[in-house]
Amino acid sequence: MPHRRLHACLLPLAIAAANALAADLRPLPYPPSRVLAGLAWTSEAHVYPVIKGDMHWQTWGADDAVWCVDGDGWFPGAGSHYGSLTRLTGTPPDHRIELVTQFRELRLREDHTPEGLRRYFCGPLAVGTDLYVCLYDYDWRIPGKNVTNRQDFLVVDRYSKLGGIPGIIVSRDGGRTWGNVPKKDTPRFLGPNFGNLQFIGFGPGYTRVPPEYGDCVYAISNDSNWESGDHLRLARVPRDRVLDRAAWEFFAGAADAPAWTKDEAAAKPVFRDPGHVGHSDMTYVPALKRFLLAVFSDTVPHREDATFEETKRWEKHTELQLYEGPTPWGPWGLVHREQPWGGPDHACYLPHIPAKWLDADGLGGWMLYSGDWDPQHYPQGEFYGYVTRRFRLQPLRP
Asked: Are the C-beta atoms of 212 and 236 separated by less than 8 Å?
């Protein structure tokens, strides 16, 4: 068992919904849950040693492992990277992380990315033994900003405007080789409103999907920019046609009147919180027959037209929101709100709740996230890696 450092950033082990009573917190757009009374952290934050990186987009593989796609970081023996695929086995805090690939042979940035875009990896998806990974672009082409100027570069890079999904790559041999790599002139797969996909978590290899959702896979995305979007939108595609753009559909209804369209531009949000919707995660909990939606944001919304001086207020503190609902399109009820997320010493981001790590009763599990990426505020970067923390949900009593 690898040794792990433990970090004491605990809130009291009680229902943290009391945070919402603080006078300085902004109103939230959805009412309290009628099913769950709150969330309590039941462990300290565990930081996996040595490995650095963030994002941790995740899926439950048919091999019973959690497969993650990461952003920038560093692995011992493999060096720095801007994208990696890892395989997590076991359950925290006794899990192990194996590096599968850093995708270097794909030469995405060198040979495949148009000028002005910054290409990364998101949304892994395991369907049976096939493994898909979505590519996504940050669009640095912001009017009035010249990235050759150091201060403009820092604004544009930290704003990270969503450019869309250029394509989805696929591996049929456990991540060793990849196909369907988009070229510079390949038509864009999805636009900025679906600028980063995270597939809703069900069972291993995308099994255990309730029959009312058909033989499809489902994905969500925020809009605008990485950390301060306005909405979440929802898409679906038959599980055997993931790479077929014509087979994708987009949610265009309401919580009480679901509807789907082939027209991406007609997609309607399934969640709204202007300025406070960062990259998000959704997981189905079979024991509760509910969906958990984890949303984070910077407490200071990012703006495209911000000045360098204004960005000095960014990334100091983040906010975590956890909602539950009966369907992937709601209606949503607030379970937990935490601000600042990580307390005074850390700025956490991009929460994930791997379905693999849920307890059998659906009320407990482990959250996976990262933090402290901004050296301006967190020079030690202690949480810039694989952070896991155990939680327990409190059901409402009749």
From this structure: no
The secondary structure of residue 159, as a DSSP letter, is: H
Q: Return the percent helix, strand and coil in the chain, to nearest 5.
A: 10, 40, 50
* Backbone torsion region of residue 226, taken as left when φ is above 0, otherwise alpha when ψ lies between -120 and 50, otherwise beta: alpha
338 contacts 22 by C-beta, under 8 angstroms: no
| Domain that residue 42 falls in | 17-395
Tokens representing 337 are 């709100």
| DSSP one-letter code for 154 | H
Instruction: Work out how many domains the chain is built from and give that number.
Output: 1
User: How much is the average pLDDT of 82-107?
Assistant: 97
Q: Which residues make Cβ contacts (< 8 Å) with residue 77, sequence separation at least 6? A: none
Tokens of 169: 């790559």
Query: Is this structure's pTM higher than 0.85?
Result: yes
Identify the residue whose tokens are 């790479």.
243
Query: Can you tell me the distance from the alpha carbon of 21 to that of 19, in angstroms, rounded to the nearest whole number?
Result: 5
CATH number of the domain at 372, please: 2.115.10.20
Q: What is the pLDDT of residue 90?
A: 98
Contact 289, 267 (CB under 8 A): no
Distance from CA of residue 41 to its chain's centroid? 20
* Cβ contact 323:30 at 8 Å: yes
3-46 pLDDT tens trace? 323 333 333 333 343 343 343 689 999 999 999 999 999 999 99
Going by C-alpha positions, the residue among 391, 313, 310 that lies closest to residue 357 is: 391
Q: How many CB atoms lie within 10 A of CB 50?
A: 12
Residue 380 lies in a domain: yes
6 within some domain: no
- Order across the sheet with 318-325: list the strands: 281-285, 290-298, 318-325, 333-338
**Structure tokens that stand for 221 in this block:** 């995305």
57 found inside a domain: yes
The verdict on residue 1 lying in a domain is no
Give the list of residues 6+ apart from residue 126 with CB closer than 8 angstroms, or none: 59, 60, 61, 62, 67, 132, 204, 205, 206
CA distances for 11 relative to 113, 299, 321, angstroms: 43, 19, 15
Q: Which residues lie closer than 8 Å to 237 by C-beta, 6 or more apart?
A: 216, 217, 244, 247, 248, 249
Contact 190, 264 (CB under 8 A): yes
d(CA 307, CA 353): 35
